[in-house]
Amino acid sequence: MEIQPLERLQIQDGLLINAERWKRSHDYHRQRQNIHYQSLNEPGIVHGLGVSLIPAPQDVPSQYNDGRWLQIQPGIAIDVNGNPIIVPQPIDFHISADITEEKPRLIYLVVRYVDPETLQRKQVSEFEPETFRIDEKTTPPDVFEVELCRILLQPGLVTLQNPQDVFYPSLNSLDFRYRKMARSRPTSVVRVAHLDTPETKEGNSLANLSYLLKSTKNLTFTLQGDEQIARLNFPLPDPTIAINYDLLFMTGSEPLILNVQELANLKSYLDSGGVLLVESPTDAVDRLESVLDITENLGTPLEDLRRLDRHHPLRIQPFLFAALPTFNQKPMQILVAAGIVLVIGDLSLCWGLDEKLTLPRETIRTAQELGINILNFAWNRKQMTQLRQQTAIPVLTKPDPLKSIFNKLE
Questions:
Q1: Predicted confidence (pLDDT) per residue in 52-61, tens digit
Q2: What is the model's pTM?
């Protein structure tokens, strides 16, 4: 949200109250309340707002007498600005989408807040209720809308139906899986990108990373992973794209080979506060040596986590690890070099469901908790680095941050 100071009416004897001053005085309290909600909470449904199938009302024209009528139940939601959306009574609604293409199409049923001051009315009452608008859309909800349900609608005059299994709705069925409930806002949302190499494009590492990010809001109340995972190619072609992500993750066994420009791009990303998480099997000697060479060229040699301060954030925040765990009968090892975290072992393989569904729950939970520590480390490193950069005093002559690298490689 845009940061603007609040203006409060100054009261003194003889103050003349007119409509403009009265409105601005009351708007102050609305804005203050909205800022409080925006700062501490996320938008969504508070209560109710169910959606049920109903027969066509008796008084509708014959062309609308079909099996596409819904009823939105009373309830309360709050939008992204902190405005309450109150539906006081059931609302009948007709799905009118006409799918012209051959394939099914998603229809979204949404509700949004409507400020009564934005409405054009012939006669204005002394008190006007804050109201709402219900729409069906063929595009995903925007930031001001709250989703009530969605329907994967087939072409033609199909009839809507209730899903036989609410977790796996079929075509033309009401789908409630993507409704967002109002909840406390996490203090940190970490954004992650997956670095693709020829050996990882067809693997399961992206799915395992997705499992990890989805686990954050269930295992911790302060950290949330953005479930939209970007896919970037390695080596980094453009550091200005990578800078949008707190953590870049890559796994595999092949060595990492970087030329001078690619090394410069990586350094630019790390200097911005980003973290590169590299995973390697214990027997991938060439890969491990290549990572050691990269960190040496960057002037930040790898250090074993066991030799660092015992209160290092990778070890204690938010989950406490004394000894690092063992996965698949192989002990874990973590090495750190500024913004590079090298994990030696099968950590990501245990973030999600394995092919044969044999991983014990304790193994998955332990791996996810260690992964969350890495995500938390990445987010905090990015935030503190940016704070330092924003408060830095500008200088007339800007030193070249890549000079030391070029000198070392010559």
A1: 999 988 888 8
A2: 0.80
